[in-house]
Amino acid sequence: MINRIKNLFSSITGESIIPINLYLIQTPFIIIFSVLGDPEFSEFGNLAKQFQAAIYSVIITSFIVIFYKYIIFAPYKKNTVPITQIISYILILGIVKGGSTYFFYIQFRLHDHGFFHWHLIVKVLSAILVALWFVPTSAWIYDSIKKFQNLRNDLMTQSVKLKLENLSYKKLIEESKFTLKNDIQDIFTDIRKKLDEIQENKTFENEWPKIAEILRNVAINKVRPKSHQLWEQPTRHKEKLSIWYFIKSAINLNPFPWKIVIPIFTLTAFISMYYNYRNFSFLLLLNVVIIIFIMYNLGNFILKKWEKFNLFIYLTIFSCTSILLALNLNIMLSNEFLDKYLLNNFFGISWLWILTFFSSLLTTVNLSKQNLIEEVESSLNQQKIHKATLSQLEKRINSKLAKFLHGYVQARLMSNALRIENADREHDTNLANQEIDKLAKDLSQNFGILDQFDAEVSFAEELEKIKSSWFGICEIEILGYKNLSIDEMIIKDFIVDAISEAVANSVRHGSADQVQVIFNQVDQTLLEISIKDNGTSESQSTNKGMGTEIFNLLCGNNWKLMKNPSGSGSLLILKVDTSLDQEVIGRL
Amino acid sequence: MNQLKLIVVEDDDFTLFTLSATLKASGFDVVAEAKNAGEAVSKSLEKRPDVALLDLDLGIGPTGVDLSIALRKKLPNIGIVFLTSYKDPRLLRSSLPELPAGSIFLVKQDITDSSLLEIKVREAALYKIGNKDKSPVIESEFTDSQIETLKLLAEGLSNGEIAKRRFVTEKAIEVTIARLAKKFDIPYDAASNQRVVLAKKVFELMGIKHDK
Q1: How many domains does chain B have?
Q2: Residue of A nearest to B209 (CA)
Q3: Would you call B61 an interface residue with chain A, using a CB distance cutoff of 8 Å?
Q4: Residue A226, SS3 per DSSP
Q5: Is residue B75 part of a domain?
Q6: Total beta-carbon pairs less than 8 A apart between chain A and chain B
């Protein structure tokens, strides 16, 4: 509550204090209201004069608005406008609006009275009360909309790099692979060019270190920045948060906010009612309030039921309420259903319309804020997941690339260098040229290894790879992995890494030569992996190192290492949450 | 004099081929070539080589060190030579077991001449006739903790992330990085990003040079 008050206070004392565009939207309502809602509106014959008076008074009032916005409030653009200034603005606005209306009424002979009269006090007081409602409400609505727009824009900006709508991991990897393939192709092209130069000039002896340098330069200066480009995604704005968006939402979401309308209406309408009807005005007001309460609740109920026809129902309820109120006022005031005052009363309710509409807007803005916060939070959570996913993916792709460049390309160049060196020492130019030709051929075919990037390796194949890689050193049996339901690629990758690490630990630290891995899908999202070995019980190092790190990342605290209860060696149990939820993402 | 029998284990075809050719040219009898640990073990049991020339990084699964231990278990007299681009094996994988006794550790970048390789292979073969030296000590000025921090730093992780991975405080990582920077003699100035320079140093240790 205190926060809300603080927010409201900061909105009405901020730079949104006079939102010109919202004022322009209000102006026709104000004119209609000041004519039709006027307690002295009685004769249709005077309607034109009353409109004229209202328009003139609105024009005069607009000078006050402009004066305050651009002169009085202008110095406070970055600071808070003092509340005393705002109160003075509301008072002057009310006095000028009420006073000018009264002045033109006198000029147009709508009043026969002298310059000072109760009419003037009522007009000024009503205008001040309306200003008391409109000024902070407009500022608050406008400020909130502006804040939401900024919030939404910030959110979208944040999403730019990370939000990958409708882009599956597979597609992302394909794109990454494509970019990387091009990068690597560039590297080969660079080397190839250098090689051509060497072949032309036959000065290969001193050129090899340069080739290696080129390779490294390209890897550092081209591949890395390229991979960073992968994460740049185009901005996409969902929906523009304009005032019209909120107006539409107001009609659709909060058509009849009776909790706001009734107290404000009571406060603002009572003065003129009391002025006209004295003690009878209490009963009159109670009657009006009951009708508003019933009709607005009925309206909300019907609209909830038949959302499709919302505008039609909205207008119908409005009209029915107005007719009901007008008829009711007529009965109460003149004991007749239909007389010349009925239409007057009907239009007199225009203030209720304005009030309802702005209250709807106000509640919508408030509700939208909550929705937007939820949207922001959900989107940020999504982003976190994307970010973690991408970060893992980036690491894997970079590591694949580094391994490729380091393991394959560099080793080949080094061994070529060695052979060329041998040939050179033996003065065998033919052999050296053959080596260069062979390297050139391999380069033109990209060493035949770029295709590896396209190879799809399934979870089962990854596990088989672990098994076969340790063949001859350790016999690995893997059970229960064929019907696993793990959707997230990252989790699969981490499982493969964890098993690799566990097997390596069994061999390295426990001297095991037999390892058994058993998968057990406990439920939809919980997977239990048991890794048994026949080594010493120290197989799985409990020291803080790579092994425990990956187990912690994969399982949090849900892993344990113990002596194998059914024999020698150790037993490692990993409990893996296979859903990529917030907790898992937080760890990864 | 009998030719020394060698097995060459290297996961890359091309390097395997050229390395074997170079060794053959140097007068060795390359009795077997293997691209992975499994192949290496079975071929070694069949051909009984005097020396195994092993790459440290054999891809997924066992490393050259794991293979060397397995080979020694099965052929206790086999000489071992590691040939790698990693200046410190811990940069390949943490918690690697000790290198087998009498084994030779060679960094590819240091082999500027094939005769050096020849000498080292012959030296490793002496293990068979009683050169039962203890495990080779790879001179490194870095502690395990520093190596781990360097590896994670080179992966692009922030201090916070490194601390999370290493189960230590962020402050401890800051101190480690400051010490490493001092060790590498990297000044903390606005002209260069200390972290990037450190990462480059890690790549150098892994055998990937950077532009000056």
Answers
A1: 2
A2: A216
A3: yes
A4: helix
A5: yes
A6: 132
